[in-house]
Amino acid sequence: MGGSSNWWGAPMQHQVGFYEYGISPFHLRAFKGFFNPGAFNFAKRMGRNLMFIGPAGLFYYSLYTWATKKFEYYNRKEYLNSHKHHH
């Protein structure tokens, strides 16, 4: 280093309030090694558990859609003016 302030890159002029940043080569390769055998083994194991997770997920999704439709119906004039709603 020897007292030089530009040991890691090209020399830059000093300006007040201006900062320049670079991207690390490790950040440029964010998905390096993602498509390796480990990712496929993970997908295969999750596929085996789909028969246990799938029905529960389908049930809760249908419950969510039913409750959303019911909530929207209860907040409309159609319901408030119907005979089902008691003031």
In one word, what is the shape? flat
Give the percentage of residues in beta strands: under 5%
Please describe the biggest sheet, giving its number of strands, its sense, and whether it closes into a barrel: none
Give the SSE order as H and E letters.
HHH
What structural category characterises the helix and strand content?
mainly alpha
Determine Rg (CA atoms, Å). Answer: 30 Å
| Number of continuous helical runs | 3
Query: Unreliable stretches, pLDDT < 50, 5 or more residues?
Result: none
- Specify the helix fraction band: 40-55%
Q: What's the mean pLDDT score?
A: 77
Q: How many strand segments?
A: 0
Give the distance, in angstroms, between the N- and C-terminal Cα atoms.
82 Å
Molecular structure report:
The longest helix has 38 residues, at 37-74. This protein has helices at 25-28, 37-74, 77-80. The protein is flat, with a radius of gyration of 30 Å. The mean pLDDT is 77. 53% of the residues lie in helices and 0% in strands. It contains three helices and no strands. By secondary structure, the chain is mostly helical.
Give a quick rundown of the structure.
This protein is mainly alpha-helical. It has helices at 25-28, 37-74, 77-80.
Give the topology, please.
Blueprint: H1 25-28, H2 37-74, H3 77-80
Which properties best describe this structure?
53% helix, flat, 87 residues
